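Side project, low priority. Logging it here so it doesn't get lost.
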Amino acid sequence: MPSKWGALDEVDLKILEILKKDGRRPFVEIGRALGLSEGAVRRRVKLMLEEGIIKKFTVELGRDFVVNAVSFIYFEKGERSKDTLQKIAEMENVETVYELTGRIDALALISARSISELNKCIDEIRKLEGVKATETAVILRVIR
């Protein structure tokens, strides 16, 4: 754990890997798989939550029920704004926003219930002050 022991140890990393695959996996099962007690797993997870290593437990919808896309966002020269990035991050269908270096200024991962809902989200992004253009690709299949 960063503030307690300086860094995540091998056990913490294994717990994180299990929870990334199944966030609902009971601590008893995780403990059994790693040779730990339920209480030991619970304490480690609690500390990782407190330290911000684990930010949240979430639900991932099956790929057949949502339209997922990657939208590359280009800003007007000198217009890259943390406020604009925050507005994008707060949009209903936006899952994650990354600020990038290079030719592309930002990337947004978007999940929508339909192509029309995806298009509405992209239109909202394009209307924001400082946004020059977007380039969006629909994700057809996730390999990993």
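Brief comment: DSSP finds six helices and four strands in the chain.
Revisit when time allows.
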